[in-house]
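Trying the structure run again after the queue cleared.
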Amino acid sequence: MKIAFILGTRPEGIKLAPIINKLKENPDFAALVINTGQHADLLDEVLQTFAIKPDYNLKLMKPNQSAELVVREAIPVISVILKKEKPDLVFVVGDTATTFTGAFIAFHERIPVVHVEAGLRTDNLYSPFPEEMYRQLVTRLATYHLAPTEQNKENLIKEHIDERYIYVVGNPVIDALFYIHNNVPPNVAETSQYVKSNKRLILLTTHRKENFHHLTQIHNAILEITDHHKEVEVIFPVHPNPNVRNQISKSMREHDRIHIIAPLDYASFTYLLKHAYLVVTDSGGIQEEAPAFNVPVIVVRDSTERTEGVEAGTLILAGTDKQSIEETIETMLTDTSLHQHTAEAVNPYGDGQTSERIVEWLKQYLTRHRP
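Done. Tokens:
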């Protein structure tokens, strides 16, 4: 059975890599990897780390590209590839322009779509933008829905998705995280300088498009906290998108304990995450990754599609107002019992066995559909 994996960004690569590599262990399956190149350099590093060589590299990335440009350019190319390769299934993950495009073309080719990380919802089409719309559209295009949690499954059922086609498997990002932590050494020269026994390390990530007009509030809160707490060191890997960099240059002033750095390779990022005292983020995947290392997460967004983390106590939703963010971080730094409770909360997003569950499901699928 031939299975196509369509990906284009670093998070997609991280989440699909464990499934692709687990699939390679079974001779009944052939994995076809199609890389749109939406985030070229960042994704290439991830695929090299997992020893995955794409069968097709479309190299669609252009300077200052928009999501709609990715969709426009990817549609005709992916269409030609799927017509030629005729895979039995197409896997997509998450909620990117690549995810939507892959599902859209597969649907038109009448190839069943398997959506990994299905059922995440904020129910606000503009938060996160455009991801919430993409994930809802992919739900309508997909045949099979691999949901990380029971809550995600319930979200899909509420939208009248047939329960027989929904499978709760966890999120493969935890598989990837554990693999990297156990098997791939970080760039010590790049990371060890930030891990100091007498400092509390805050790992900061902000890049969401809908948060651009809130960045001054978010970054001013970080600056205030760093000024007031001499034991705090902030590491801020900045997304390569020039629009993100331009916004950050306007909203974050220089500080001797705030280190604005280039994106890290995944092993080095995992190392810093493991040693962080706290994560402050508007990103998605890190809301799932940090709790796997017992690191509390403060989400600087007005909503999150990962509501299970809020309910489980691994995440705290602080909003985008400076005072609210500052108060939330201050409490986490000064209330040791709250920090401990948040750190020890059970991660609802997976146990590192998701890729095995997905391959077992594929074996059952193959048995049912074998000619």
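The two ends are 10 Å apart (CA to CA). Worth checking whether this holds up in the mutant runs.
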